[in-house]
Amino acid sequence: MKTIALFGASGRTGSHFLSQALDKGYEIKALVRTPEKIKLKHEKLTVFEGDVLSSEDVEPVVKGADIVVSLFGRVKDSPELLQTNGTKNIVESMKSHGVEKIISLSGGGLPFPEKDQPKFIDKTIRFMMKVLVPKVLEDAIAHHKVLEESGLKWTVARGPRLTDDAPKGEFKETWVGVDSGTKISRADLAQFILKEVEEENYWYQMPFISY
Asked: Which residues contact 83 (CB under 8 A, 6 or more apart)?
């Protein structure tokens, strides 16, 4: 069974992924700034206290892993380019320790012109992001560029509006504007990411997961 280096385990999506992955029998090495937020106790879970913006904190989490799952994201008062700079640290550590695979998380505002066919509503949402939260969009785009230029195998899972609804256990794996919906529960998004850890269907792509 694979060992997963997990970033963002205490987040609202990361916590679902953590419990689902442990239930499946994966070994998890998780980096969190506040270990007390991880309520789960499990023999296959090792929690490291630290910050993704510190390369020294990132290194022991990545070392010995088979794959990285990066679910950390911006919160209120996050530093600019948090996702970009954190991803740089992760990528550098992966190269140092021979870890070749990473799955990251972003929103539908991050464009993937190779497959997306954005409709009017999608274009409107992206325009509003550029106006209202330009730093968030810039960070998402820059973090994707880090992955593209890394030489590693990467996937960026994208989602629309995330909810705390109960999981349905089914969802669409499409592209923005291609039979896509406007929401998904965090639990089901986490389920897709775990499925991708197992099946590896979307290397070098950015699938859009929705209902």
From this structure: 72, 73, 74, 106, 139, 140, 142, 143
Give the CA dihedral 17, 153, 175, 124, nearest 10 degrees.
Answer: 90
Q: Do 61 and 48 touch, CB atoms closer than 8 A?
A: yes
Q: CA 207, 4, 89, 64: dihedral to nearest 10 degrees?
A: -140
Q: If you count them, how many residues does the chain have?
A: 211
| Distance (Å, whole) CA 151 – CA 162 | 30
The answer for 63, left when phi > 0, alpha when psi is -120 to 50, beta otherwise, is beta
SS3 156: strand
- Cβ–Cβ under 8 Å, residues 121 and 87: no
pTM across the whole model: 0.95
Residue whose tokens read 């504007």: 177
Q: Are 168 and 176 in contact (CB under 8 A)?
A: no
120-150 confidence digits (pLDDT tens): 888 887 787 777 777 888 999 999 999 999 9
For residue 63, count other CB atoms closer than 10 A to its CB.
15
Pairing of strands 208-210, 172-174: antiparallel
